[in-house]
Write a structure and sequence with these properties.
Radius of gyration: 14 Å
Number of helices: 4
Strand content: 15-25%
Oligomer: single chain
Order of helices and strands: HEEEHHH
Largest sheet: 3 strands, antiparallel
Strand order of the largest sheet: 1-2-3
Structural class: alpha+beta
Shape: globular
Helix content: 40-55%
Number of strands: 3
Length: 145
């Protein structure tokens, strides 16, 4: 039932998104857009070579995109590039391959498990993760050049 994906906790997360806005001098920015639902997420990352040191985002998304962005914003600072790549893959598997929800500091993502039954909602839920990984790819490409 669609009420499962728009439960109280998802709506709370969507209503309280931290770190809204833009960074004045990010190391990278990425905008991801879902053509299916029209949701858009733009992230700015500051990265010291090992960990995310600052984060801001603009979120124009449905409640699911807002909730996943809210969880990202609460957790991303202090995380390594590999950890962020791993959590993106874990969420993708949770939604598309019936994998387990991420654990540890990312355990709040468990609230998004019911979305797996609604394929049309996967893209908006993954936007923030895709944007963060794209920004990390940009940073790594700049450092390699």
């Amino acid at each position: 039932m669609i009420d499962d994906i728009y439960n109280r906790r998802i709506l709370e997360l969507a209503a309280e998104i931290p770190r809204l806005g833009r960074l004045p001098a990010p190391d990278a920015s990425s905008t991801q857009h879902s053509r299916l639902c029209g949701s858009t997420v733009t992230v700015d990352l500051a990265f010291d070579g090992e960990r995310v040191t600052d984060f801001a985002h603009e979120v124009r998304a449905c409640a699911l995109g807002q909730a996943s962005s809210s969880i990202m914003a609460r957790t991303v600072v202090g995380r390594t590039a590999q950890e962020l790549r791993d959590v993106r893959e874990a969420v993708r598997k949770m939604l598309k391959e019936n994998g387990p929800a991420p654990a540890g500091v990312w355990e709040d993502l468990k609230v998004l498990e019911p979305v797996r039954d609604y394929k049309a909602r996967h893209a908006s839920t993954l936007l923030t993760f895709d944007a963060v990984v794209d920004a990390l790819d940009q940073i790594e490409a700049k450092r390699a050049a």
